[in-house]
Amino acid sequence: MASDIQESDNIKSQNKYSILLPTYNEVENLPIIIWLIIKYMNESGYDYEIIIIDDGSPDGTLEAAGQLQNIYGKDKIVLRPREKKLGLGTAYIHGIKHATGNFVVIMDADLSHHPKFIPQFIEKQQKGDFDVVSGTRYVGSGGVYGWDFKRKLVSRGANFLTQLLLRPGASDLTGSFRLYKKDVLEKLIKSCVSKGYVFQMEMIIRAREFNYSIGEVPITFVDRVYGESKLGGSEIVQFIKSLLYLFATT
Ligand SMILES: Nc1nc2c(ncn2[C@@H]2O[C@H](COP(=O)(O)OP(=O)(O)OP(=O)(O)O)[C@@H](O)[C@H]2O)c(=O)[nH]1
Ligand SMILES: [Mg+2]
């Protein structure tokens, strides 16, 4: 029993989790998400850092991030801002470059992804030595709250079509709340060609292509609390185009 505890302490002290938080106009959400991440990570005892990648948000997100850094410390909150809005894919690459952990968690800052699931991702990863652990809204206790019918239909439809065409071996393809081994994430991002909504799906398709193992944890997903949503018709068209491209090439 005592050796069990020692062993789990060893695992805890060896690994470090870099949590990447890309932000664009998240000034209302940022203090809450940071507080929650710190609460759940401190409670579970894992070593971690939060890397905020702000892309010149006009609403003052970066200033808020600076204040949070003063409160929680520079070892916990790392700021890696960029001049202007350059998109999510490159924001991740930028964040990984500065990550000092051997694991990387990717999550949205708009409170859609609840930090309470991060320790669950970590436990899952350790149980199966998974290369990737993906949050899923489509298994077990997972689910979506606050979406209108159109948004649910698009998400379900995208997942269904992709399952049918590509058989990816994971149930939630369009979500982005995931834990990766850092070297695995680097390799996956480099191999991805798509941008925007479809990028998260391609990451899982590539993971399967490279024979990486994927674990899943049911998550509840809540619609963004503050700020505006961007999903429109052009994203849907782009998604279907990219899906067919991946179907033809992988
Ligand atoms: N650094 C950076 N962050 C971004 C950019 N675009 C979006 N984000 C952030 O990435 C995360 C996901 O973006 P969201 O706007 O929530 O995308 P979504 O969840 O598909 O759409 P909605 O929540 O419905 O608006 C959020 O934390 C955003 O603030 C960008 O160009 N650069
Ligand atoms: Mg969102």
TrEMBL record:
Keywords: Endoplasmic reticulum, Glycosyltransferase, Magnesium, Manganese, Metal-binding, Transferase. Its main location: endoplasmic reticulum. It is found in: Endoplasmic reticulum. Its cofactor is Ca(2+); Mg(2+); Mn(2+). Pfam families: Glycos_transf_2. Belongs to the glycosyltransferase 2 family. It comes from the Eukaryota. SUPFAM superfamilies: Nucleotide-diphospho-sugar transferases. Residues 18-188 form the Glycosyltransferase 2-like domain. GO terms for biological process: dolichol-linked oligosaccharide biosynthetic process; GPI anchor biosynthetic process; protein O-linked glycosylation via mannose. It comes from Aromia moschata. It is an enzyme of class 2 (transferase). Its EC number is 2.4.1.83. GO terms for molecular function: dolichyl-phosphate beta-D-mannosyltransferase activity; metal ion binding. This is Dolichol-phosphate mannosyltransferase subunit 1.
